[in-house]
Specification:
Layout (H helix, E strand, L loop, with lengths): L2 H21 L4 H11 L11 H9 L8 H4 L1 H21 L2 H12 L2 H6 L6 H20 L6 H19 L7 H13 L7 H12 L1 H10 L3 H10 L7 H15 L1 H13 L7 H9 L2 H11 L13 H15 L2 H28 L25 H14 L7 E3 L2 H15 L3 E3 L3 H4 L2 H7 L8 E7 L6 H5 L3 E14 L2 E14 L1
Parallel strand pairs: 1-2, 1-3
Antiparallel strand pairs: 3-5, 4-5
Helix pairs in contact: 1-5, 1-6, 2-3, 2-21, 5-6, 5-8, 5-18, 6-18, 6-19, 8-9, 9-11, 10-16, 14-15, 14-17, 15-18, 15-19, 16-18, 20-21
Length: 499
C-alpha cells in the first residue's frame, strides 16, 4: 500500500473521531482533567502535567469551551501515532505490513477511541510511546543506519520516553523493555555513553514530578503505592476482569488477531529477533498489570500502549502467511465490529429508556449505570442553574464529596452560575481538588453553602457535613429522564448555620 492509502486512512479516522468528540458528552475522567487545565501546575495528584497543559492549549486558554476542543489533542495526535505504527511495521518488514498494522491499530477500541478521542493522558502517552518504539526499532532492528547514527538515536529515545512519562509515569516501562532486549541481544549498548546519557535525559523529565511531590509530602507516589500493594489478598476474579477488559478494549477481533498471528503463528513467519524485540516492547507492562490484577483492582487501559507492538507483530505475520483477501476480511471485520460497538454504545447513552442501574429507591436511583457519566449533565445543569439564579443563591459556595461528580458539577453547573465549588472530604476522595480548593481561596467559613448530588452517586449531606452545619434542608429534587422514563434525580441542599 502506498502513502496515499495511509493519508486516506488518517483522514477518514480523523473525521470519525472528530464527529464522536463533538457529539459525545464528557465522561468523569475528562471533566476532571479539564480542571487540570483550569488550574495548571507542573504536576497533579493523579498524573503528570501534559494532559492539563494540552487541554489549555487546544482550547486557546478556554476561549473555546466545547467537548471537541477539550478532546482536540487526542484527535490530532492520533494521526502521527497511526503513522508511527505504519512506519514501525514497514521498517521491520515492508509497507504492506505497515498498512495492515495501521488499520488494525485504528480498529482497536483503545487505539482509536480511548487514546484517539477522549481527553485523557493516554492520548498523549500513546503518541510518545509509539514514537519511542519507532526509534527503538531503528536502533535494534533496522539496518538502514550507521552505528554512530544508532547511538545518537538512543539519546532521542531517552528524550521521547521522558516526554511520555510526563503524560503517564508508567512510560518508564519502555526503558525496562529496551534494557531487557539489550541484555539478550545487544549488550554492547551498555558500554556506550549515549545509553547512560539517554537514561539521564529521561530522568530530567522527573524533576517537576519529584519537586512537586517533595513539596506535597509525596502524595502522588503514596497514591500509586496504594494501587500496587497487595492488601486485598489473592483475587483471581480481578485478574479475569482485567484480562476480559483488555480483550474488550482492543476489540475481540483485534485481540484474536494478536493471539493467533502475534503469538501462535508468528514463529513460522517472523524472524526470531524481530519477534523477540516486539514482545519485549510489549510484555513487561502487560505482565506487570496482569500480575497486579491478581491482588488489586486495575483498569484495562493501563496496559493499552503495550499492545501496539503486538498489533505490529500480528500484522507482519498476516502479511507473510495470508493472502490479500483474507487480510481484508480481518481488517474489515475489525472496523465493522468497532463501528457497530460505537453506534450501539452511543445509542445506549442517548436513547436507552430510563436507566440500566438501580431503581429500588429515589436516593440511589440510577446507581451502577455507567452511561449516566455521559448523559444529561448539560440539561440538568441548566435546570439547576436556573433555580439557583431565580432564588439568588449564586453567591454561596457549593460543596461536593468526591472528585466525581465534583468535576461534572464544575463543568456543567458552576460555570453557568458562578458558584465556587469545593470538594470537601479526605484526599483519597477529592484528589486534585485539595489544591483546587486552595487556589479558589480555601474552603470558606461562610454561614451557608449548597450541596448538589446526583442519585447515582448519592451521599447523605447530614452524614458528610452535619458536624459543620446545624441545618441541612432539601431545596429541590430535579428528576432527569431519558426516552421518556426516569433515569435519576439531582438533589439540591441548602446547608446553613455553620457551627
Amino acid at each position: 500500500m502506498n502513502a496515499r492509502s495511509l493519508v486516506v486512512l488518517c483522514f477518514v479516522t480523523f473525521l470519525v473521531r472528530g464527529t464522536i468528540a463533538a457529539l459525545l458528552p464528557l465522561g468523569n475522567d475528562e471533566v476532571y482533567y479539564i480542571m487540570y487545565a483550569r488550574f495548571p501546575d507542573f504536576h497533579y495528584y493523579d498524573h503528570p502535567l501534559l494532559i492539563g497543559w494540552a487541554i489549555k492549549l487546544s482550547t486557546w486558554n478556554f476561549k473555546f469551551q466545547h467537548p471537541f476542543f477539550y478532546r482536540l489533542p487526542a484527535i490530532l495526535l492520533s494521526i502521527p501515532t497511526t503513522v508511527f505504527v505504519y512506519k514501525i511495521a514497514s521498517a521491520i518488514r515492508k509497507p504492506k505490513a505497515g498498512w495492515v498494522a495501521a488499520c488494525m491499530f485504528s480498529a482497536s477500541f483503545y487505539g482509536s477511541v480511548i487514546a484517539g478521542v477522549f481527553a485523557m493522558p493516554d492520548s498523549i502517552m500513546v503518541f510518545f510511546w509509539t514514537f519511542s518504539v519507532f526509534i527503538a526499532t531503528h536502533i535494534f532492528i533496522s539496518d538502514k543506519h550507521r552505528p554512530e547514527d544508532k547511538n545518537e538515536l538512543i539519546l532521542w529515545f531517552g528524550l521521547v520516553v521522558g516526554l511520555a512519562a510526563l503524560a503517564k509515569i508508567h512510560a518508564v516501562f519502555l526503558w525496562i523493555s529496551f534494557i531487557g532486549f539489550a541484555i539478550f541481544r545487544k549488550r554492547e549498548l551498555f558500554k556506550k555513553w549515549e545509553f547512560w546519557v539517554g537514561l539521564g535525559i529521561t530522568s530530567l523529565a522527573f524533576l517537576p514530578i519529584l519537586l512537586w511531590n517533595f513539596q506535597n509530602d509525596w502524595v502522588h507516589f503514596n497514591f500509586y503505592a496504594s494501587r500496587v500493594g497487595t492488601q486485598s489478598g489473592f483475587r483471581p476474579d480481578l485478574f479475569l476482569r482485567e484480562l476480559l477488559g483488555e480483550l474488550g478494549y482492543q476489540g475481540p477481533i483485534v485481540f484474536s488477531c494478536i493471539l493467533i498471528f502475534g503469538l501462535f503463528k508468528s514463529g513460522t513467519a517472523v524472524k526470531r529477533n524481530e519477534k523477540f524485540f516486539l514482545m519485549w516492547m510489549a510484555f513487561p507492562l502487560i505482565f506487570f498489570i496482569l500480575g497486579l490484577s491478581l491482588f488489586r483492582e486495575t483498569l484495562p487501559h493501563w496496559s493499552g500502549p503495550a499492545y501496539v507492538s503486538l498489533i505490529v507483530l500480528s500484522s507482519i505475520t498476516m502479511v507473510d502467511i495470508l493472502k490479500v483477501k483474507k487480510i481484508g476480511i480481518w481488517i474489515w471485520g475489525s472496523f465493522s465490529f468497532m463501528l457497530i460497538a460505537l453506534i450501539l454504545g452511543m445509542m445506549l447513552i442517548f436513547y436507552y429508556p430510563g436507566t440500566i442501574g438501580s431503581t429500588k429507591n429515589s436516593s440511589n436511583y440510577g446507581s451502577g449505570d455507567f452511561t449516566l457519566d455521559m448523559y444529561g449533565w448539560e440539561k440538568s445543569g441548566n435546570q439547576i442553574a436556573a433555580y439557583i439564579g431565580n432564588n439568588h443563591l449564586n453567591n454561596l459556595p457549593m460543596y461536593s464529596h468526591q472528585w466525581f461528580p465534583a468535576a461534572h458539577l464544575d463543568e456543567y453547573l458552576c460555570r453557568k452560575t458562578g458558584n465556587k465549588l469545593f470538594a470537601v472530604g479526605p484526599i483519597e476522595q477529592i484528589h486534585q481538588y485539595k489544591w483546587i480548593n486552595a487556589k479558589r481561596g480555601g474552603i470558606p467559613t461562610s454561614d451557608s453553602a449548597l450541596f448538589v448530588v446526583p442519585s447515582n452517586y448519592f451521599r447523605d449531606p447530614v452524614g458528610l457535613y452535619g458536624n459543620s452545619f446545624a441545618s441541612i434542608e432539601l431545596l429541590k429534587k430535579f428528576p432527569q429522564y431519558r426516552g421518556g422514563r426516569l433515569t435519576r434525580y439531582f438533589y439540591l441542599y441548602l446547608m446553613h448555620q455553620r457551627k
